[in-house]
Specification:
Two copies of one chain form a homodimer. By secondary structure, chain A is α/β, with parallel strands linked by helices. Chain A has two domains: 152 residues, Aspartate Aminotransferase, domain 1 (Alpha-Beta Complex); 238 residues, Type I PLP-dependent aspartate aminotransferase-like (Major domain) (Aspartate Aminotransferase, domain 2, 3-Layer(aba) Sandwich). Chain A is built from 14 helices and 15 strands. In chain A, the strands form four sheets. Chain A has a seven-stranded mixed β-sheet with strand order 2-10-9-8-7-3-4, sandwiched between helices. A four-stranded antiparallel β-sheet of chain A has the order 11-12-15-14, with helices on one face. A two-stranded parallel sheet of chain A has the order 1-13. In chain A, α6 crosses α10 and α13 packs across α14. The longest helix of chain A has 27 residues. Chain A is globular, with a radius of gyration of 22 Å. The relative contact order of chain A is 0.16. The interface between A and B is large, with 96 and 96 residues.
């Protein structure tokens, strides 16, 4: 065997295994474990019957339309699907594409929304550039930022989402450090945020955009609006997108996915991009894979076109409302009387954010996690949802609980086990 | 509207539109055009019936196995599929995985083989690093190299593929320039190469690997073996892979795809990676999309498992043999008597490489292409298949002809039109 190694690129050197891999390995190794950690979706409602029905429609007979989904597609994605999705996005805000200055050329289809987040960031970020994100925020994106060499500045959130004053303070601080020209992206998960379940209020939406514009003094700052959970709003209507206020299609990339609302296995994400980024994003996509699965895109397109998609989302909303309520009721039952334990009450999405008294450490090595694992339940330690931000110390007393893939009785049992672990640690 | 722009990353700035986009636009704009340019596969043989059959098997009944393909998968890909593919790769060389020191942990599944080529290159190449490739070679990969900032050195090929002496000379030259430590990758498309259709001879395979090892003095040079067309060998048995000689699984990444042998629409590629690169590749894949479509992977897995895959490849080989012969016969008929016009006679794959007398310029702006377009046929100008190599001048008198997606009578008519264009230019 050779004793020599490969010489890795700077990017590869900046890439580390995400600690969440440990959680997955634990769950695989111990099938009796109840995982309130995994971000999977509900199994029961995955649309296997719809897929079978669509397969029969699409692939019966040997005509060209049965062959097209199996042939190469084009880099930005199936045009008919992009047209439908453009209308879908605009009409969700009561707008027309023209009112958003948007055309099908601004629509791109990717392998889940993660690939689009990666491509957009790769387009703008050189090592040492700055990305501003809520603190906490979506941790898979944070991993990509580390690889790309971005410096992350975290902005405080409250029950109404990212706080505009905190964003302004952060930008002022960056400006004072002489680094405003390094700011490339503001990343906002604005509906039922992963990990907290919090939604950005209607009022703050144009405010955040105005701040982005105001500080775009040397070049434009991109606002990535990650609306992965927008359609999973269980109560009332979700607020307008931030994109709605970007009527010249200049600053906001609106990113969505079918992973939560239809099937993560088909892995189709999509986005409406500012005009100036559309062609560059297609070119990067061309380098990566010159187009996501035409096959998967066709199923999504046909599900939309044949009217299967929207009723499916309604079904999911009903089902997830029940699951969320099971989780919230269990938390109330087991933690309702405990001083200093609080949790969010999301109106949609797949996550509840649990806050313990500050002396309870939720990390892997600490007692709570170890006791919980022993009792047969795991969660995501909240600290993993915070990007490194040299200005702030990461809180270590929170946890993300997912209810997407867990059956009702296991949610109940999982919370009971967690409370048992908490009791043993809290009195200890 | 704002007059400010986004400030793009160095990578984005290095990325340019590939001229091939122009060919696609031409073909779309003019449906009567016969495209001998597009690298699509045969429509008729796309496995729509197999897909329908598999859909019924997979998605009938509401049991868990009908839901799994629609749920999230894992980053490296469906484990059962990786196991099958490891055996498939090893047994194609009459080896066991153990004889290749390879395990399922070294197998990765990607969105077509392009994504794997990109990830492997991204793992090793910083701007200014060197990638050595055949000259000419596969042009989509060349685009990615440009984005990644690689300097390309082209190695001469003959009818037996890459010439070992030429590879050695190139490495000696790089060494003399004091840049040997910059060499990260040797890229070889070794079966029925895109664009020439040439296969690397059995004898040269271990020779190339030995040269790579010999010049891996400071760090390992990765040999990327792109075997996209290996299974489309029409005559006799294809030679051993280069991977076969890398018995410690140290230097060679063997890359294949189902795009040519089953369906490009499903977009599933895969690779057997050197042990040292396996985990780093998974981490990059995690950043990009944390796993290709589980849905598509399941269809490939079931096609394999249920014995539909191999008979399908046999069918394709038969069909493509016919198409290749139609093209070769047409070329013989129209160009057989013309001094200085030659072409390759590939034993597999989807391309024939046509060489005109050196005074015939095949590029877009030149007379031949313009006359051909007027006559109703397009091809890929050969110059696009050569990476920029400051040591060598790109030949401008060649063309790549694809017969994959073109119907027999259109191949005949396409060559007739091309010969008509050639006649008018050659006498002019």
């Amino acid at each position: 065997m050779s004793s020599k190694s490969f010489y890795f690129s700077q990017r590869a050197k900046r890439t580390h295994e995400h600690p969440i891999s440990y959680l997955m390995a634990e769950a695989v190794a111990n099938p009796d474990l109840i995982s309130l950690a995994a971000g999977l979706v509900d199994y029961q409602t995955l649309p296997s019957e719809e897929i079978l029905e669509l397969s029969k429609e699409i692939f019966s007979g040997g005509q060209r339309s049965a062959k097209n989904p199996l042939q190469y597609g084009v880099t930005p994605g199936l045009r008919e699907l992009r047209e439908i999705l453009l209308d879908h996005m605009a009409s969700s805000d009561g707008m027309t594409p023209a009112e958003l200055s948007a055309s099908v050329e601004n629509m791109i289809i990717t392998t889940g929304s993660q690939q689009l987040l990666f491509i957009l960031t790769d387009l703008l970020v050189d090592p040492g550039d700055i990305v501003i994100a809520a603190w906490p925020s979506y941790f898979v994106y944070t991993g990509a930022l580390e690889t790309l060499g971005a410096e992350v500045y975290g902005v405080k959130i409250d029950q109404d989402g990212m706080i505009p004053e905190s964003l302004r303070e952060t930008l002022e601080q960056i400006k004072a450090e002489g680094k405003l020209s390094k700011v490339k992206i503001l990343y906002v998960v604005d509906y039922h945020q992963n990990p907290t379940g919090i939604t950005l209020s209607e009022q703050r939406r144009p405010e955040l955009l105005e701040i982005v514009k105001e500080y775009s003094t040397e070049h434009k700052i991109l606002l990535i609006e990650d609306s992965a959970y927008r359609e999973l709003t269980y109560e009332g209507e979700p607020p307008s997108s931030i994109k709605k206020f970007d009527t010249n299609n200049e600053y906001v990339a609106l990113v969505q996915t079918f992973s939560k609302t239809f099937s993560p296995g088909i892995k189709i994400g999509y986005g409406l991009l500012p005009d100036e980024l559309s062609e560059p994003a297609m070119l990067q996509k061309g380098n990566h894979d010159f187009g996501s699965s035409n096959f998967g895109q066709t199923f999504i397109y046909e599900a939309f076109r044949r009217g299967l998609y929207k009723p499916h989302v309604e079904l999911l909303k009903k089902r997830y409302t029940e699951k969320r309520d099971v989780l919230l009721n269990s938390l109330e039952e087991h933690f309702g009387d405990i001083e200093g334990v609080t949790w969010t009450h999301p109106s949609g999405g797949l996550y509840v954010w649990l806050t313990f008294p500050t002396h309870i450490d939720t990390h892997f090595e600490a007692a709570l996690f170890q006791e919980a694992k022993k009792a047969g339940v795991i969660y995501v330690p909240g600290g993993f949802c915070y990007a490194q931000d040299r200005r702030q110390e990461i809180p270590m007393y929170e946890a993300r609980l997912s209810y997407g893939a867990v059956e009702d009785e296991k949610i109940v049992e999982g919370v009971r086990r967690l409370s048992q672990a908490f009791q043993s640690v809290n009195k200890g």
